[in-house]
Amino acid sequence: MKRDYREIIAIALLAGASVSAAQDYPLRPIRMIVPSTPGGSVDTLARTVGTHLSQRWGQQVVVDNRPGAGGAIAAETTAKAPPDGYTLIMATIASMATNVSLARSLPYDPVRDFAPVTQVASQQLVLLVHLSVAAKSPAELIQMAKAKPGQLSFASAGNGSGGHLSGELFKLLAGVDIVHVPYKGIAPALIDVMSGQVAMTFASVISATPPIKSGKVRALAVTGAHRSPALAEIPTMAESGVRGYEASTWYGVLAPKATPRAIVMKLHDEIVAILKLPEVKDRLLNEGAEPVGNTPEQFGEFIKAEIAKWGKVIKAAGIKAE
Fold first, then answer.
1. How many helices (H) and strands (E) does the chain have?
2. What are phi and psi of 156, to 5 degrees?
3. Percent of the chain predicted with pLDDT > 70
4. Are 81 and 217 in a shared domain?
5. Contact 220/138 with Cβ under 8 angstroms?
6. Residue 306 sits in the same domain as residue 167
7. Are 14 and 162 found together in one domain?
8. pLDDT single digits (tens) 160-218
């Protein structure tokens, strides 16, 4: 069906207005919503990116911490904000992927209600075991677990946490029966692994590095698709024989769905440039994270894939939100 010339003109005018808005953007402070309390990894990332955006644009980027409900409060606030580029979210894997299967219902849709800007960073986890565990590799650990079904346990920072889901993925792909022991945070979980109360855990690189270097735990593998720059001597799970294993926590910037494309791309270009700065790359690596900086389309497809992937794991494990 041919378009009326008036419709074509209207579309052209809208496109022109969008480009003009992007050229002027930003004209006032930008709010970046963070689904956690101050001081954590996602908060640090938001403040790092926000500081550089402020310096480049001469407009303040205000970090607005909205913790709670696994990131749902922050995500809902962003989804309902005006789509003008002045409200963004530094989202997490929880708020944009795992919540879909963990929560009974969500007041937002991660795919329908947001305009992806870019994935900012990813952070691998490390499979750690107590020194009394004889296994020196995931293959040996799998052999032990199969010989003693239900007798080995793994600690996590809580039900539905990254460490929990990483452990459930390991169970699923390795075909082993190990028992999940949830804690209220990774610190107490690590303490019990270091003391031998629990056999193993999956901890973030930044949390795992001190006990590894102090010799209180043994690192068997990292969970990403490639070796971690921070722990280059430790092989990946896939390298160690657990085919198809890949798990990491990640962070990314999104805007409300109807945000003009030109503004989304201006944000994308600036944030990707910031991620390439040596001081930013070094800071992320020191936090155990790796910069990404993909396109809005790539980030959008990644979110869809993560929703599907972790949905299968959550369903298979019968995990419910606490």
1. 12, 10
2. -145, 170
3. 93
4. no
5. yes
6. no
7. no
8. 999 999 999 999 999 999 999 999 888 999 999 999 999 999 999 989 999 999 999 99
pLDDT of residue 23: 84
Domain boundary among 205, 231, 257: 231
> In this structure, are 194 and 213 located in the same domain?
yes
Residue 242 covered by a domain: no
94-123 confidence digits (pLDDT tens): 999 999 999 989 999 999 999 999 999 999
Is residue 297 included in any domain, yes or no? yes
Split into its structural domains, the chain has a count of 2
Alpha helices in 196-241 (DSSP H): 205-213
Looking at residue 3, its pLDDT comes to 55
- In the chain, which ranges are continuous DSSP H helix? 5-24, 41-57, 72-79, 93, 99-102, 138-147, 162-174, 186-195, 205-213, 261-275, 278-286, 296-317
pLDDT band at 28 (very low <50, low <70, confident <90, very high): very high
Asked if residue 317 lies in contact with residue 170, where contact means CB atoms within 8 angstroms, the answer is no
Asked, for residue 239, whether it belongs to a domain, the answer is no
The 10s digit of each residue's pLDDT in 77-86 is: 999 999 999 9
The residue written with tokens 């930008």 in the block is 30
H or E element in which residue 130 lies: strand 114-130
* 211: containing domain: 124-231
For tokens 């409300």, what's the residue?
Answer: 256
Please measure the distance between the N-terminal and C-terminal CA atoms of the chain and give it in whole angstroms: 52
**Are 204 and 42 within 8 A, CB to CB?**
no
Q: What percent of the chain has pLDDT over 90?
A: 84
